[in-house]
TrEMBL record:
The keyword Magnesium does not apply. It comes from the Bacteria. Keywords: Dioxygenase, Iron, Oxidoreductase. This is 2-oxoadipate dioxygenase/decarboxylase. It is an enzyme of class 1 (oxidoreductase). Its EC number is 1.13.11.93. PANTHER family: 2-OXOADIPATE DIOXYGENASE_DECARBOXYLASE, PTHR39479. InterPro entries: HGLS, YdcJ_bac-like. Pfam families: HGLS (PF07063). It comes from Coralloluteibacterium stylophorae. Belongs to the 2-oxoadipate dioxygenase/decarboxylase family.
Amino acid sequence: MTATAFVSPDEIRARFARAMSEMYRSEVPQYGTLVELVAEVNAATRAADPALAARLARNDELARIDLERHGAIRVGTAAELATLRRLFAVMGMVPVGYYDLSVAGVPVHSTAFRPVEAAALAANPFRVFTSLLRLELIEDAALRARAEAILARRDIFTDRVRRLIQRHADAGGLTADEADAFVAEALETFRWHGEATVDAETYRALAAAHRLIADVVCFRGPHINHLTPRTLDIDAAQAAMPARGIAAKAVIEGPPRRRVPILLRQTSFKALEEPILFLDGDGRTPGTHTARFGEIEQRGLALTPAGRARYDALLAEARADSGSTDAGYAARLEEVFAALPDDADALRREGLGYFRYELTAAGRAAAGTVARDTTLDELVARGLVVADPIVYEDFLPVSAAGIFQSNLGGGEQKAYAANANRAAFEAALGAAVADEFALYQALQDDSIAAVRAALG
Ligand code: OOG
Ligand code: NI
């Protein structure tokens, strides 16, 4: 047998992310405007902050930043979710984290498919926030059965993509031609369809139970509902949005602006009301559907469980009295978060964030001469080792709920009882989701091991 050259999963993912971006740009032109705006803000931010530019270069982030995106989709059945897991695996993307959004009035639970290894993240960190509709949260049994029957009739994957997924599993990779075909065929699952698969009455009945249910159930596939570029300065990007004709959401989700950015800050523009056609008998009746929007995000330091507990508590405190939509919220958030150190060294020494350690030029020169029991803190203090923040690659449930809510046409706050069900989600997925903290810890530990080995 001759050896076959397979295209790397990183390369397939990069091609897919590019194809998806082009498709969404043609479907939702305001997304293209956002991408251009973010590229300008990023260039200006780098130019104004050489230390930031140097750190991005040192951590292999410079090349990825203008390519970086996340998207989101919502599916209706366990079988759809399980096949998506296999589809994303072709691109080196695995499920990380479990998010229960029912507490926030959204009848879904979710994971994020993303690359996990340092080299893969540096090559292209494309991620897809993927939600599974929880039909069991529909109270009306007849309506629930109707939704199940509609979902049972559809196939969101092309035959060819199913064959290529299987081919990848059997052969251990895809050739160049197969990879091209895979990207084109996989894209079909995420495409927008302006024709509903149901009549207007069915759509309205499902939308009345929850608008998200209609979005998941009434179409041929799980259209990508947004694609998010990463900005280095979300406040500058947010301020520049109105001049480009983009109506941004009033409040930036997540932590406040800080000297050392932490976790994830996000803002979006409201979903567009788009014309669709309902299937009424033999004919088509026009209507509208609101689902697709634009979003930008700024990513910062990944927090340890201790840091994350502080974040969650401070966020809850800031939102406790009057929620997160009033005019005073931004100021209140900054005030409350003053309790968390805003200095990379303090965050590191207090074990609140994850860091990547690397030898400096002085450290390389000192190799072989440093006592083995020198602590990391001492190595950093002596300028032999530099510690850079590890970027948060995941999502935040409170922010995600805010993004969902702001795109459901406002005001909709159906409360479901808190009922996280990670076991049911993993059973549907056909696999366990990875623990994000363990992944960051491994990145940090690997960097420390490399420093120790190089020091001798
Ligand atoms: C997903 C919302 C979550 C984010 O950035 O937090 C999300 C959705 O609306 O389907 O994308
Ligand atoms: Ni998003």
